[in-house]
Amino acid sequence: MTTNIKLINWVNEMTELCKPDSVYWCNGTDKEYEQLTKELIDNGTFIKLNESIRPNSFYCRSDPNDVARVEDRTFICTENKENAGPNNNWVAPKEMKELLLKKFNGSMKGRTMYVIPYSMGPIGSDISQIGVELTDSRYVVCNMKIMTRMGQPVLDVLGNKNFVHCLHSVGAPLNEGQKDSYWPCNPEKYIVHFPEEKSIWSYGSGYGGNALLGKKCFALRIASNMAREEGWLAEHMLIVGITSPEGEKKYIAAAFPSACGKTNLAMLTPTLPGWKVETIGDDIAWMKFGEDGRLYAINPESGFFGVAPGTSMDTNPNAILSMNKNTIFTNVALTPHGDVWWEGMTDHQKPEKLISWLGQDWTPDSKGNAAHPNARFTTPAVQCPVIDSAWEDPKGVPISAILFGGRRAKVVPLVYEALNWQHGVFMGSIVSSETTAAATGKVGKVRHDPFAMLPFCGYNMGDYFAHWLSIGDQADTSKLPKIFYVNWFRKDKSGKFLWPGYGDNIRVLKWIFERTNNVDSAIKTPIGYLPKSDAIDVSNMDFPSENMKEILTIDNELWLDDAKDIREFYSIFGERLPKNLLKEVDMLEERLKS
To answer: Does the pLDDT at position 469 exceed 60?
Structure first.
């Protein structure tokens, strides 16, 4: 099993605290997974889907009060409050530990504690990191089997080295003879990070990123701290490989806030003949410098934990094909034939009868959605039809370009390129999106989400900006990725989208691809390099030239208004904001006024 004394002592200590009836060390085998899914079926948590339609796949419904990440119950506990920053909820570590020790005391009574050794990234890669999650949830074990490399092979590589400590309990102890809930959880929830000791304590929730602690908790909040200490990057980014018709291949990473087309871009089906896009990852990228001075990236996950509603053969056929088998579906709807359905899956033909995510009979005339808006699928990445052949390469893949983007109806053009690395960091720091009807508050209000990392940066975001700037200072700038900003959501005066998006986004990626080869296809503007009027390939596409002109137009007055908003946003970081970013705002305003 293991000779790691730190691990053995920690498991013993947490066993004494949580008081489970038994402790089971996960080996990560298919046989183990089969046994756990059987137990989940027996408990009423899982329903096995129709084997002839969706082999080895399962359906489950969560408690209606446990359906998403709970940001207001997510904490960063550092000794110094300023180190957590205004972007995080903070409680002093000692105070939080005292509270959590009471919560976890006896929290696993009547249950099994599962010990999950897991690797974020290919086992043995220099970019990968190892964690161990202790949990009393079989659902978590099954999802972690898909989302990470887990089991005995990880312990073999761990040896006596350190690891990230991850403790999770649903907070629902069982008395002798008490029947278990189909979805055990606790009304009170805590998702707590102790970055200085590299540990995570999660209590009360059994759902998604609250409970699968390798995901946002480790891969971003804890890893972002590790990356700052060690000189690398842990980012909320997709990674794709793009191959030109001539056979040249480049890799790009891209960060977008929610509802900005991230998953669709990660699994893009190009409309330009001869171009190919392949997936390394759809959510998280870890990047370290290679011996040649370039940034190399891995996807630390081994599965996709994707939002189901809105995913269809029209919007993202590769995602649909990825989940044909070996998939766990949570909070979608169940069909009479033992398959799954959700809103947006087949809008032209809604099923006449379903069981909703609430376990109720549902028809098209029913009130409310059949699937929860945050319903999820957990599926192995290797099943993606366009998975890149290098997706598990322990060296990672060299990144040629980094993209940022948001949802903006005006102001921001279709695409522009940074003037240099510092300007690119400035572009990442001003990522913002306008709220949609699905969000609370005023529709169209600009919401800042720097680097698409605002909910996931595990320390003061002012320091995070400084870390990105330092990456440029320590590198050979000629080998750093070029940085771009894209906006698929620019609208005309009538409110219609100017750009078709989806598969046609390859046309923008083609321009970016060529710019990384220093093709002279850009003009310098006050905000950065924009494509020349004929630089975006619109062949075999009904796209009027006046639309291209409008989508690449810079309105200096609107940008000056945006600059005021940027200054206001920056002010929340106080003295922690790097002075060079304020200098970038000054220079932007000077260029816009000249």
So the answer is: yes
